[in-house]
Design brief:
Layout (H helix, E strand, L loop, with lengths): L2 H33 L11 H17 L8 H8 L2
Helix pairs in contact: 1-2, 2-3
């Protein structure tokens, strides 16, 4: 990767990360509810399959925002890169 990319991540994204935390928290809550649902009793899940879309939504929310961050096609694309 280019030095510019590393500088951008290190300076621009890191500097502004605190302002993204509320959005990331919102996306995690939305993603878990969408992926796992409201479990009212003990249920077996595959954590990897449940968490990957949540991480994708959270990351996409920071980089591309709503509504694209929750678009199923976009999530699938970003998970398969």
């Amino acid at each position: 990767m280019s030095p510019e990319f590393h500088s951008s991540i290190k300076i621009n994204l890191s500097h502004d990360l605190n302002s993204h935390i509320p959005f990331m928290r919102e996306e995690i809550n939305f993603g878990i509810k969408a992926s796992i649902g409201d479990l009212l009793e003990w249920t077996s899940i595959n954590p990897q399959m449940q968490i990957d879309p949540v991480v994708s939504m959270m990351t996409n929310r920071v980089f591309v925002g709503l509504p694209l961050s929750r678009d199923a096609t976009w999530i699938g694309t970003t998970m398969n890169i």
